[in-house]
Amino acid sequence: MKTFVVIPCFNEQENLAATCFSLGFGLGRAPSANLVLVDNASTDSTPEVMAQLRETVGVRNISIVYEPTRGYVPARHAGVSAVMELARQEGFRSNDVLVLQADADTNYLPGYIDAMSGAISGRPGELIEGAAVVGREFRAEFPEFHALCCRVDYSVEPWFAADEAQVIVDDKVCGFSLADYYRWGGHRQEIDSLGREIYVETTRLFMHAKRAQPAYRIKVAGAYAVPSRRRLWTQGPAYFASAGFPRDAEWIRSWVRQLPSSRDFLTTPFAWPSLTSAIRSRQRHLLALFCLLPAACQNGPPPSQFQLALVSALRHLAGNDEPKCLLEAALFLADEENGILDKFLDQGLIPRSSLNFNS
């Protein structure tokens, strides 16, 4: 199977070369894959960095695409469209082409492309996903924050759906066949009921896939990446409160304005007066996205009785099984203080010892 790596880039002059090098493109070498770089109307030196990379690695291995409409959906779709044209020129069938999504500010560990390319069997409906991990340097610099995240997440993990049932997809460490991408309808821009653009474009792509045909999410062993932490530098409290799930600008501001700086929160999170509220918000997000959402996307009943009422509430809020509606409903439940998810947490179904973050 022929592999193409697609990287959307907006003002990534500082990060792009290192990301490409980590994937194996650079210093006169290239893996057995092609790289498609999408300039999303950058205003810095990103185009020059792209041109230098192409000259260094070779025009046969790197293609450059310009997409004037900003945003991940237009940029990612432009990259896949370029893959389609390149595959046609080289005589590859779309069933025999693997598209790997990558981000321009992520460091991919050795063997990433080989691990991902070797994991796809060619069966229709496969979405493969590597793992984004926390770098050692970040853990060492902010040990209290890292330990807090692990402990909060551990408190609700027993209620998560099985890996194969999950629908939340990490955009920067995933891949699919070119044929499936178009069968699934491609990346699309969607607006919620309040007129805000909905993010997580590849999650929605996969949710559409599961509605249309059998679709499978496959975790790939040995495919690891260390993402940039720049969102944490500017959105620390909000990033924590949403469990890293992207939210709209006003939602982010509501958390960020409570602190003088995100670095203060990362360094000494337990000193923040609003920490208890942020912990509960993170737990609600995790339950809504990794427990209720996958259960709502399955054809059968929820796996446990307690989930039945929660999933029913989610479906009632959504009104239908459109991915954008289910996601909007899940986020509504995640934001609802003293709502059904808080009541669930307060009932002691999660061991109270795991909720005692001062011990």
What do these coordinates show?
The chain has 359 residues and is α/β, with parallel strands linked by helices. It has 2 domains: 2-136 and 162-230, Spore Coat Polysaccharide Biosynthesis Protein SpsA, Chain A, CATH 3.90.550.10; 233-355, no CATH class. It is 47% helix and 14% strand. An 8-stranded mixed sheet has the order 3-2-1-4-7-6-8-5, with helices on both faces. Helix 1 links the parallel strand 1 and strand 2 (34-39). Helix 6 (143-156) crosses helix 12 and helix 12 (275-296) packs across helix 13 (305-318). The longest helix has 22 residues, at 275-296. The radius of gyration is 21 Å and the shape is globular. Residues 350-359 have low confidence and may be disordered.
List the secondary-structure elements in sequence, H or E. Answer: EHEHEHEEHEHHEHHEHHHHHHHH
Residue share in helix: 40-55%
Content of β-strand: 5-15%
Q: Could you say which overall geometry the principal axes of the C-alpha atoms support? A: globular
How many separate domains make up the residues? 2
Instruction: Please report the distance between the alpha carbons of the first and last residues.
Output: 52 Å
Q: Helix/strand-derived class? A: alpha/beta
In short:
The protein has 2 domains: 2-136 and 162-230, Spore Coat Polysaccharide Biosynthesis Protein SpsA, Chain A; 233-355, no CATH class. Helix content is 47%, strand content 14%.
